[in-house]
Automatic annotation (TrEMBL):
SUPFAM superfamilies referenced in this protein's UniProt entry, alphabetically: RmlC-like cupins (SSF51182)
UniProt source species: Haloarcula saliterrae
Protein name (database record): Cupin domain-containing protein
Top-level taxon in the UniProt lineage: Archaea
Length: 128
């Protein structure tokens, strides 16, 4: 699920500031700490092989974030996909993988402990 900043509803607007907010943009599990993550992907990067062995061979962690620049395709367990581009505010629910179509920069917020487990899994796959 994604939206552009132009599509975000305006919550408050003053002569000096504009606040836009998307509500109901994914659910956060109780007692979860979020981590902030800045990621850069080179064009052609496909993380799918690194997710093999996780539930349904996809990332089981939800992410909220912003695509700073580039283009990334998110593929879901159900076979659907979306392409997110620079300027998009995103929510990637559990059950996804990612392929960077171009050099891409994203900022994500993810449940810290769960995502650390995914990173550990991916690091182990890279050592195989």
């Amino acid at each position: 699920m994604h939206t552009t900043k132009q599509e975000l509803p305006t919550l408050m607007e003053t002569p000096d500031a504009v606040v836009q907010q998307q509500t109901d943009f994914g659910e956060l599990p109780a007692d979860t700490t979020l981590s902030a993550e800045h990621m850069q992907f080179t064009a052609g990067t496909d993380i799918t092989p690194l997710l093999e062995g996780l539930p349904e061979d996809h990332c089981p962690v939800p992410h909220w974030g912003y695509v700073v620049e580039g283009e990334i395709t998110i593929r879901y367990v159900d076979g659907s996909e979306e392409t997110d581009r620079g300027g998009d505010v995103v929510y990637w629910p559990p059950g996804h993988t990612a392929v960077a179509e171009r050099d891409t920069e994203v900022v994500l917020f993810s449940p810290q402990d769960d995502h650390r487990e995914v990173f550990d899994h991916m690091a182990a796959k890279m050592e195989e």
